[in-house]
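Q: Is it fine to ask for two folds in a single conversation?
A: Yes, each is treated on its own. Send the first.
Q: Here.
A: Result:
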Amino acid sequence: MQIMEGGELPGLLVIDIGGIRGILLSHVAFLKKHFYLITMKELLENRKHLSKKVQAIYLWWHKPVIDQELLQSLPNLKVIANSGVGMDHLDLKLIASFGVKMANAPHAVSSSTADAGMALLLASARRLVEVHHIAISSSIDYCEADILGVKVAGATLGIIGMGRIGYKVALRSKAFEVNILYHNRTRRKAEEEQAVGATYCEKIDSLLQQADFVMVAVSLTPQTHNLIGKRELELMKPTATLINISRGPVVDQEALVTALQTGVIRAAALDVTYPEPLPRDHPLLKLKNVLITPHLGSRTDKATYMITEEAVENILAALNGRPMPSEVLPS
């Protein structure tokens, strides 16, 4: 427990407590053991008194927005902890210019996000949403062709991005008896490949041409923006399914809509889109061969609590001058 001079706990700025966007109520007691919680509403209403108390910010699903105005108003801010892996919503160089450290939560999210990826793959392959509606419809008659799915066992899964999440997808996929290909900036060690039965594709084109399911699990960077576009989609099999558990802008959504409408690929299962949520009139929402979830990734009770624990560990390390376990540096 970090105690400030005068016996006060360090101030931790959060967007809100409870409600639609606030930190979960089940996390509040744990956070209050270490910090004096300050919401954005409280800060705006009493900036003169509270701005000097804020030593850390905990971003809950990208909120509060970190901009120059906020950074300038918090003279004692030392660290910002993010509730997830991706930092693409932050201007890392701007934050660093204020002498503020940053951390993410890579360890807490990987298992649950890999679970979500497998859930999307299976749900799309076996058309679970469609057959659920058939099962509960007023009519008990249906065409057999309307419930035929794709066999997963024996299929080829191509994983683009073999980091923590991608590798855990591979571990889970092995149990479903799929053939695993992967493409990554750096090749995994031979023993890691052998443990999951994965084959490395140096070129992404080779993976796209062979895979029945393509799962994208990369970080969003300038290099991965629109990584999957018209050309890449046309390299895929017409029977293939694209699964995106990374970030929406990694896939060119206009090209994806066209590919799905014209049969270039069979289907898509997306946990991420751009923007989130999509406008209610977006064409992706009207297609029957698309399954969309609202960025569920790591959103399980245990994973979200682990995210908060990881954030607290990083914040306390920064405030006490110790190395941060998950520090993120500007590139």
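Q: Second one now.
A: Result:
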Amino acid sequence: MLIFLLGLNRQNNQNRRWSPAQAREFLHLHSSLALMTLHSDLSPQRTLAPGGSKLPASSVHSSGPLLPLHSDILASLFTPEGQPYLLEVMFAMRELSGPLSLLIEMVTYCSYCNEGFSLGVLQLLKSQMETAPPHELKNVFQMLQEILVVEDPLQSQRLKYAFESDNGLLALMHQSNNVDSRRCYQCVKFLVTLAQKCPPAKDYFKDLSGHWSWAVQWLQKKMTEHYWTPQSNVSNETSTNKTFQRTISAQDTLAYATALLNEKEQSGSSNGSDGSPANENAERSLRQGSESPMMLGDSKSDLEDVDS
């Protein structure tokens, strides 16, 4: 299957064997390879002891013991020669339209307590976010989210590497806010969504607020520049339109981001931030979202971002 997908002895700098149109037919192939990995024992590949942490939850339930790690799987995931396969996984996240949960579970399973794999796959994801068309990034952000919520001794390091490294998301937001507003918006929304789903990430963003508070002001300005679009299927994540569109989801993102900043600013006060207008707006939008598919905190609706 790997030879079929990659070609024989494909090198890292070689072109893909299949065109994007052909590769869109390979969902079952990718799922089969991912299942083999999920049924394999990866504990010998860990670079850190788990401590009190547990493996990420998986939908794959094995009735027997895990299989020994096959040499081909080892080479495709944990060696420099395996880069072509992981690149195909990145392309699959952009190109495939079917359920990609097995691919995401495979990558999070491999990342668990494995520093080299974690940083390597984060680098690949960041490269996709910088270069891929914005309308192809929805599932890429979903994979990144699932990696960053993994609770193990590497979680803090992953967060810093994803956001603060030279080509991290904070740098990407600065690079794209004037020339690629939809890409910048997706980064802001990702930060907000991750803060809702992951308490360690929320604390991290509050401590880092001085580095991204400008993006909230930028989004506020964008919301006032663009008219309230009447179409019901407009999305800043899936539309091929190159300009930012004012949507209900963008309004929710701005409300929660503002509330998060206010919570940081007022954390020392006895009253907290619950009474601030920004927090009231955020809580109201999130309560409304819990009754509709628009809530940012819902893992399925995170992939929609459409007006209703």
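Q: Anything structural to flag on that second result?
A: Two points. The CA atoms of residues 252 and 284 lie 9 Å apart. The radius of gyration is 20 Å.
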